[in-house]
Each structure stands twice: as C-alpha cells, then as structure tokens.
C-alpha cells in the first residue's frame, strides 16, 4: 500500500528489521541519510486505510487534520497522481494536504485562502467541505476566496468571496493557497495532465506561495 501511495515518485522502497523499537515506522531517506520518520500507524490512519470521502464528508474534523511528518517533509516534491479507478490512494495525498492548508488558515485566522473547486456546486454537494468553508468564512481576519464554474452561488452571509470563472483553465487546475501578511503559510497546486491524472506539489516556501497566489489573482 505504501508503494502504491508513492508510486508517482521516483522512490525506492525496502523493508528492514530495526533494533530498539517494537513499532512499525517509516523512514524517509535522502542520499542515505534519514531526514524524517513517521509511525506507520499515522500513515494508515490518514492515507492508507481511508478514501477521499473521509475528508469530503467531514468525517475528520478540520481541527484534527495532522499530516504525518514524512508527508510534510515531501514539500516541494513533484507528484504524478492518478485518480480512481487507476488508483485508490494516490490522489489522497493532495486531498489531505488541501485539508491541512485549510486547517492552517483557520488556525492562523489572518491573510487569505484561495481554493478552486472546478465547479462551485461541489461546495454544496460535499457536506463536509461546505461545513469547512462555513467555518473559514466566519473566521474573522481571514479572507476566504473560492473559484469555480458558476453553477451554484453560496449564500451571501457565508462570508466567502466568490469568483465565478468560466475559463476552461479552472477545470484543469486545483489549488489551495493560504498566504499570510507575515509568517507561515502554505500552497498546494495540481495541474491536469490527462484523464483523471495530475501533476502536483505543495510548498511552505514564502516566495513560492506569493508567486502562486499572484498568478491566481492575475489569471482569475
């Protein structure tokens, strides 16, 4: 399952017996050096043993979203991802990071959050997602912007800045960007490369976040 999860990366995976621990752990190595570790249980709970509905229906409350340390350490890494039916798990890592960025924006309560939904009606159709954006919309100090084909209009009192976009590009781009005036933020960007296939990454680098955010504002 781990191999399938990271199938879109140029990775080698092996299993070894380690002394000094009774728990199964996952180690991330670069150039032979361990750069991060996570209990296997954390990856099972957040990615391996769930599906997209786990996040879309709100089964996992926003405040509980906590990606494994290994996933956080993979920021800046380009993922090649396939959706169902080609893969049950690959897209989950982007869904998880999207929810994490939303939770970070809620926690920080400042700056902006920009999210694309391809079609705005997805906000209405996904009950968990709508509850998340109701919370974000009521977060004082946070400007929450949603983008998508205007096939549904959120209520005016939801506290959201709605951008109805008819450009075909909105269907081919998936982004969640939290930009703060000062301090930590995050961005996730995925581009469609084929039928139900994406190339995506996430970043915590302030210059990269600003560049992506500026591009979205100029484009849409």
Q: How many beta-strand segments?
A: 9
Please identify, by name, the CATH architecture. 2-Layer Sandwich
What strand order characterises the main sheet? 3-9-8-7-4-5-6
Number of helices: 9
Q: How would a textbook summarize the main sheet?
A: 7 strands, mixed
Radius of gyration: 18 Å
Beginning-to-end CA distance, first to last residue? 38 Å
SS-derived structural category:
alpha+beta
Low-confidence residue ranges: none
How many separate domains?
Answer: 1
Q: Indicate the percent of residues in helices.
A: 25-40%
CATH topology tier name:
Endonuclease, Chain A
Could you walk me through the main structural features you see in this protein, from its secondary elements to its overall organization?
The structure is a single chain. A seven-stranded mixed β-sheet has the order 3-9-8-7-4-5-6, with helices on both faces. The longest helix is centred in the middle third of the chain and has 17 residues, at 92-108. A hairpin with a 6-residue loop joins strand 7 and strand 8. It has helices at residues 2-5, 40-48, 53-56, 69-73, 92-108, 121-125, 127-137, 169-172, 206-219; strands spanning 25-30, 33-39, 79-82, 111-119, 142-149, 160-164, 173-179, 186-194, 197-203. The radius of gyration is 18 Å and the shape is globular. The relative contact order is 0.14. With 220 residues, it is of the alpha+beta class. The mean pLDDT is 88. The protein has a single domain, classed as 2-Layer Sandwich (Endonuclease, Chain A), CATH 3.30.870.10. The chain contains nine helices and nine strands.
């Amino acid at each position: 399952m781990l191999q399938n999860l990271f199938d879109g990366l140029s990775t080698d995976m092996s299993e070894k017996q380690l002394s000094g621990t009774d728990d199964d752990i996952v180690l991330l190595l670069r150039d032979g050096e361990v750069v991060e570790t996570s209990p296997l249980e954390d990856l099972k709970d957040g990615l391996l043993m769930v599906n997209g509905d786990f996040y879309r229906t709100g089964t996992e409350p926003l405040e509980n979203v906590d990606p494994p340390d290994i996933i956080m350490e993979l920021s800046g890494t380009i993922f090649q991802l396939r959706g169902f039916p080609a893969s049950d798990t690959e897209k989950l890592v982007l869904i998880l990071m999207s929810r994490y960025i939303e939770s970070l924006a809620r926690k920080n309560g400042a700056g902006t959050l920009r999210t694309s939904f391809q079609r705005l009606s997805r906000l209405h159709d996904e009950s968990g997602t709508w509850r998340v954006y109701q919370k974000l919309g009521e977060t004082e100090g946070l400007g929450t912007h949603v983008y998508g084909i205007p096939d549904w209009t959120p209520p005016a009192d939801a506290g959201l800045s709605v951008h109805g976009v008819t450009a075909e590009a909105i269907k081919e781009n998936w982004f969640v960007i939290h930009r703060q005036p000062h301090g930590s933020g995050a961005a996730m960007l995925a581009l469609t490369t084929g039928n139900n296939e994406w190339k995506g990454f996430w970043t915590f680098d302030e210059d990269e976040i600003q560049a992506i955010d500026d591009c979205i504002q100029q484009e849409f």
